[in-house]
Each structure stands twice: as C-alpha cells, then as structure tokens.
Inverse folding.
C-alpha cells in the first residue's frame, strides 16, 4: 500500500512539473527525471529496511525472550519495553536486531 501511495505521489509530481499533458507526451523517459530528489534510495539502504521489517515479523519466542533479557539490564530500555514493545525498545537502545 505504501508503494502505491509513493507511485501516485510521484506521478502527480511529474504531472504537475511537466507543463505538458501526460497523455500527449511521447517521451516518458524525460518525465522520470522530474521526480523530486530523495524519493528514491540506494539499493543497499532499501534492502536494509526490508531486512529489518522481515526480521521483526519472523522472530521466534526464544529470540524475543533473548531480546527481553538483554533489554531488562537497562532500566530505561525496560520502561520503554513496557510501553512501546520489546522490538521498539531493543532497536532504540541497541540498534538493529542481530537475527
């Protein structure tokens, strides 16, 4: 769904900045350069985001318990774990989940 929204916003930006009617344009390659900078990310950055989301969804109970034990050693992390969840707390205090 997020990808669809990004595509719609990009196409709207292209339409608004092109100055010509999109239906009469015969060169779609020129309109691709009209997208705002920052809309696209490098391949390694995108794969890191996808990897983090995938890892967070596939954690077993033993892995979650391991993260919980690490987070319980830090009082601030333990408080955040109680309010925001173990994955958000571990990521905020210790970085990406290692597995």
């Amino acid at each position: 769904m997020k990808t669809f929204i990004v595509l719609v916003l990009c196409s709207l930006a292209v339409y608004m900045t092109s100055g010509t009617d999109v239906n009469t344009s015969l060169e779609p390659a020129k309109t691709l350069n009209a997208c705002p900078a920052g809309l696209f990310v490098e391949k390694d950055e995108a794969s890191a985001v996808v990897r983090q989301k995938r890892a967070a969804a596939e954690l077993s109970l033993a892995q979650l318990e391991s993260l919980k034990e690490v987070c319980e050693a830090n009082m601030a992390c333990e408080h955040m774990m109680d309010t925001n969840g173990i994955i958000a707390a571990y990521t905020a205090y210790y970085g990406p989940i290692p597995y």
Observations:
- The helical segments are 2-18, 28-32, 43-57, 61-72, 75-84, 86-94.
- Residues 2-18 form the longest helix (17 residues).
- The chain has six helices and no strands.
- The chain has a mean pLDDT of 77.
